[in-house]
Amino acid sequence: MNDTPLARILIADDEPLYLRTTGELLRKSGYRCVCVADADAALAALNSEPFDLVLSDLNMPGNLKLELLREGRRNWSHIPLIVVTGVPSVPTAIESIRLGIADYLLKPVKFEDLLSSVRRALALPSNSLPAVERSEIERVGLTEKFPEIIGRSAAMLELFDIIDRVAETDTNILITGESGTGKEIVAKAIHQHSQRRDNNFQVIDCTAIPESLFESVLFGHVKGSFTGAVKDQSGLLSHGHRGTAFFDELGELPAASQAKLLRAIQEQTFTPVGKNTPIKVDTRFICATNRDLEFEVREGRFRRDLFYRLGVIHIMLPPLRERGDDVILLAERFLPQLRSARSSVVGFSDETLDCFRQYDWPGNIRELRNAIERAAALSRSELIQVADLPEPLRRPPTDGKAAGSVIGNASRDKALGNAEHSYLTSLLEKHSGNISQAAQQAGLSRQGMHKLLKKHEIAAADYRQ
Ligand SMILES: Nc1ncnc2c1ncn2[C@@H]1O[C@H](COP(=O)(O)OP(=O)(O)OP(=O)(O)O)[C@@H](O)[C@H]1O
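Above: the input record for the complex with adenosine-5'-triphosphate. Below: its predicted structure, written as tokens.
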């Protein structure tokens, strides 16, 4: 359906003031609007006249289990539906996305944002709206749409489904998952499949910005605004204008910076240091962290309002050990990319593949890539052997069910030694072999860390990239 001035919009919301003003403003913008206060009235209206778009609240009478969304998408799947809610929640957001909504907006929503979302939804060709539920075959088909993300496990097929549905919307997204699970690659895929694809995907690493320089780096500054500001400098946010700003390691952001970021996101404006006039920016925010942000919010270390603002859609990436035989698929795809042109390596021995299946992969896909690159360089035969793998992969598993059997047969010293070994390897994975950082997290001196690594015959260099 095209964005004609006569497009008909059904607005369902139980807040009388919101309903009236939204209806009036959309009429002034040239749309024909029908306003109703609950889901039953909305379904009755859909049954009796044609609409081009539905704007729906979530928490209103008759919609507590998303009845309007479900029936709307089942019976009128050609009509785009935008959710506008004052009570965001992760389950309803995910469910809404799964049902194929065109956008998910948070109240209070600025009218201009609502209008651009309405225009975008009306411009969608009706056959581009995803069906309510995708079959297994359709989901498998999506793997071709995201060739850079390798995976066929049920968890990954579900992920492709979600990425595909959220890409077209303009909703902020929070991606969580252990280190190396692919948060950045997923964020990039969302950007590349969105209408912002022709503009920048601006990566902002929260750990790389000193707290005192947060505003200057993010918003820019003018010459002379502080000691060291020798020339005008634009901020990273302005590079993400009309594109996507990807905030990596969001969980590390100090409280003062969280407040500044929240203001920029809410108002979609920022003021460079030393200037008085704010600059408008049109950016989609995707944030990633390997921390449990809900826990951080409960502990008072992360702002609840920022968490809700950013986490409208929350994508949780499964660790590699929960992706079944994806580990083999990934290994087979990585090998030709990572071996040198002169290498005679063509594959993996069965024992090597077993090691891949049994290992815990604390560093996830990044660790797998590194292991394969190293093994391909070391291998002297056509098939990579267990002996070519980094030491941690060659050890029997030490936790979960396997740990039970190790502990069952091992002395206390041996069991504790195993636990210490796997703790150290996870630490090195996490800190990419950086001994100072690993020591700091473990509460040890560098010297103490070196001693422990020596005791366990672990080479930190194996974990560097
Ligand atoms: N499903 C996948 N298919 C192919 N490559 C992947 C996949 N997931 C991750 N990778 C690769 O693994 C490496 C780590 O991925 P990425 O940087 O996206 O992880 P991350 O979760 O953002 O890590 P961190 O939390 O440490 O920043 C990259 O080289 C990336 O290309």
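Notes for the reader.
The pocket of adenosine-5'-triphosphate is lined by residues 149-151, 177, 179-185, 248, 288, 290, 365-366, 369 (CB under 6 Å).
Residues 399-408 have pLDDT under 50 and may be disordered.
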